[in-house]
Every structure is written in C-alpha cells, then in structure tokens.
Design a protein that fits this description.
single chain; 64 residues; alpha+beta
C-alpha cells in the first residue's frame, strides 16, 4: 500500500476521547475518514492510527 497523503484527508472522525485520560488520550482513535473524496478502508484507518502523534493532534483540535 502506498503512503497516505495527509493533505487529501477530509471528514476525520475521532472516537474514544476520554477526558479522564488527560493528557494521554491513549484510547482515542480515528474511526472514519475520507481520502481524496472516498471512504478510507480499514487498512488505511489502521495506518492512520499507527501515527499516534497525528491522532493526538486531532484530539486536541476536537477538544479546543
């Protein structure tokens, strides 16, 4: 699988945010996304979720 182009990501759904887990938010994950206008596959979501720094940034964007 080729690397995901993060500039083409849209409609990211972040799930599992538990504010009691502040500041780690270790249970948060990307549950859905679109890549270049199409629904991301499970494999692509898995790849995105491996990038914990990216997920962490999304959590902060959603909270604040």
């Amino acid at each position: 699988m080729k690397p995901i182009d993060y500039t083409k990501l849209e409609n990211l759904e972040v799930e599992g945010i538990d504010t009691r887990d502040y500041p780690d938010f270790s249970d948060a994950y990307i549950g859905g996304a679109e890549i270049d206008g199409r629904k991301a596959t499970d494999e692509e979501l898995d790849e995105l979720n491996e990038d914990r720094d990216f997920v962490y940034e999304l959590v902060w964007e959603r909270l604040f």
